[in-house]
Design goal:
The chain contains 20 helices and 17 strands. It is of the alpha/beta class. The chain has one domain: Alpha-Beta Barrel (TIM Barrel), CATH 3.20.20. Strands 1-2-3-4-5-7-12-14 form an eight-stranded parallel β-barrel, surrounded by five helices. The protein has a three-stranded mixed β-sheet with strand order 6-8-9. Strands 10-11 form a two-stranded antiparallel sheet. α16 packs parallel to α18. It comes from Striga hermonthica (Purple witchweed).
């Protein structure tokens, strides 16, 4: 059971003085600290240099109401044209590593290797990698981060069709060939459960299959479409089977890419390859009742185990096999052999935690991924069982400040999955995008500093006391960006991007904190810092149009 949670009360101290005194030098030698982005969220230049059309281009531009305030990634934060400027910010901050993703549509505009490789796309990412290496910043490269070439969806349904596995594998091999001499940490797929559930259960991501949560007879998740603007919220596709089919093909695509890398490139190029899992929420049992503890374990297996257990054992979790039955695809013996052990590391994205308690399936429930679990998720509540409050909401409606959850996630992964090498590949929090304040007020994100300090404290505790094999910590995000269905209504960045005035970048207080965390052996008071804070005089008096 997932009950390895430290007992604490709201007044109890967070380990290591709440993380306030920690610096990078308190972590093991070679531990990587970095920042992350993803191609569609930052690049823009959607029609430049022969880039093909992606599922997100179509979703945000051709389906009004699917994204908050009609946001799209056609310009995003124009990273495509500001690469040098942005890498200077990474260097200035002191990052060891930069995690970014490659756009499938830039490399293969027609989706398939047979339609031709785009030299402009190769050059863009090759130049980016060279610039990073020149500045001694290690690239962590994600091959797939939610972007599917639209043409593959039109032709055969994208990840609903087994044909996607071969097309993805050939795309991945192009990346290995073009960049593998310099890229030493590869991620095959980012957050497959997010891609699957939001696209094929909740109708929040393309292709919009399933039932939006607000139309369900009960609240099962916090991700939502936007019913005030989305007039097309309705159930499409087969939510009883499609998410499991898509997930199966994602796992096979991952494993096929790993097999190709290991057989043809790894020995020569000397890199490692893994997958990034666990989006957004972790779970605690709501009470000490057996049914709630079992519900929590099921929720974790349907989230984390769905994609990690096959990589460890070649099988889906028993709870999924028992409940989903014939709707859950099976691996052939040959596929089991390929899938088992197909990782050098596991990337974990952690943001928040919710309560999980048993909820018996009701007659009017749809048959889908959520109701298969028989779990209800709760927030803004107190559990006497663990003496933990989950009540501080941070920007996004699904994101609550629960730093102890990262400790439970890490120790669970160590215990359950044979002590894998782990990277925290995303951790961060958001604020609402407020459009009518002076810049100096928008840069004052003290809550984000506290968020990272306390998560790093529990991360260090997992390393020191549980000996979890964590090798790195990457913040989401280093820059404000396009946040998928939320568009530009929330900001996750340590650097403020001024959407109203030329996309200028300004360091928030959290960026200043991160600079000092990464560059000081001991954190000192503001007056003694070599890196000065952005002050009202320096930033707040800049003229800004509204």
């Amino acid at each position: 059971m997932a009950t390895n949670v430290l007992k604490w009360n709201p007044g109890d101290p967070v380990p290591y003085n709440g993380g306030k005194d920690l610096t990078r030098y308190d972590f093991p030698d070679g531990f990587l600290f970095g920042g992350a982005t993803a191609s569609y969220q930052v690049e823009g230049a959607y029609d430049k240099d022969r880039r093909g059309v992606s599922n997100w281009d179509d979703w945000s531009l051709m389906h009004p109401g699917k994204v908050a305030e009609g946001g799209n990634g056609t310009l995003a934060i124009d990273h495509y044209n500001r690469v040098k400027e942005d890498i200077r910010l990474l260097k200035q901050t002191g990052l060891d590593t930069y995690r970014f993703s490659i756009s499938w549509c830039r490399i293969l505009p027609g989706g398939k290797f047979s339609t031709g490789v785009n030299p402009d796309g190769i050059k863009f990412y090759s130049d980016l990698i060279d610039l990073l290496i020149k500045e001694k910043i290690e690239p962590i490269v994600t091959i797939f981060h939610f972007e599917v070439p639209k043409c593959l969806g039109d032709e055969y349904g994208g990840f609903l069709n087994r044909r996607i596995v071969d097309d993805y594998a050939k795309y991945a091999e192009v990346c290995f060939q073009a960049f593998g001499d310099r890229v030493k940490i590869w991620t095959t797929i980012n957050e497959p459960s997010t891609f699957t559930t939001l696209g094929y259960v909740n109708a929040s991501f393309p292709p919009g299959h399933g039932t939006p949560p607000d139309e369900l007879p009960h609240k099962v998740v916090l991700h939502r479409c936007h019913p005030d603007t989305d007039k097309t919220c309705h159930s499409t596709g087969n939510e009883a089977t499609e998410p499991y089919i898509v997930a199966h093909h994602l796992i096979l695509a991952h494993a096929t890419a790993v097999r190709i890398y290991r057989e043809k490139y790894q020995a020569v190029q000397g890199g490692k390859i893994g997958i990034v899992v666990v989006p957004n929420s972790w779970y605690f049992p709501y009470s000490d009742k057996k049914e709630d503890k079992e519900a929590c374990e099921r929720a974790i297996e349907f989230l984390l185990g769905w994609f990690v257990q096959p990589l460890v054992s070649g099988e889906y979790p028993e709870s999924m096999q028992k409940r989903v039955k014939e709707r859950l695809p099976k691996f052939s013996d040959k596929e089991k052999e390929m899938v088992t052990g197909s990782y050098d590391y596991i990337g974990l994205n952690y943001y928040t935690t919710m309560w999980a308690r048993y909820r018996k399936k009701q007659p009017d429930d749809p048959i889908n991924y959520h109701t298969d679990q028989e779990v209800e998720f709760l927030v803004i509540s107190f559990s006497s069982y663990l003496n933990v409050y989950i009540y501080i909401q941070v920007g996004s409606e699904w994101l609550y400040f629960v730093p102890i959850g990262i400790y439970d996630l890490l120790t669970y992964a160590k215990r359950k999955y044979n002590d894998p090498v782990i990277y925290i590949t995303e951790n961060g929090c958001s604020e609402k995008n407020v459009k009518n304040l002076p810049i100096h007020l928008l840069l004052a994100d003290d809550f984000r500093i506290k968020y990272h300090q306390e998560h790093l404290a529990y991360l260090k505790l997992a390393i020191d006391t549980a000996r979890v094999n964590v090798k790195g910590y990457v913040v989401w995000s280093i820059l404000d960006n396009y946040e998928w269905a939320a568009g530009y209504t929330v900001r996750f960045g340590m650097y403020f991007v001024d959407y109203l005035n030329g996309l200028n970048r300004y360091p928030k207080k959290s960026a200043i904190w991160y600079m000092n965390f990464l560059n000081k052996k001991k954190l000192m008071g503001p007056k003694d810092r070599e890196v000065e804070d952005i002050t009202e005089e320096a930033a707040g008096k800049k003229k800004r149009k509204y």
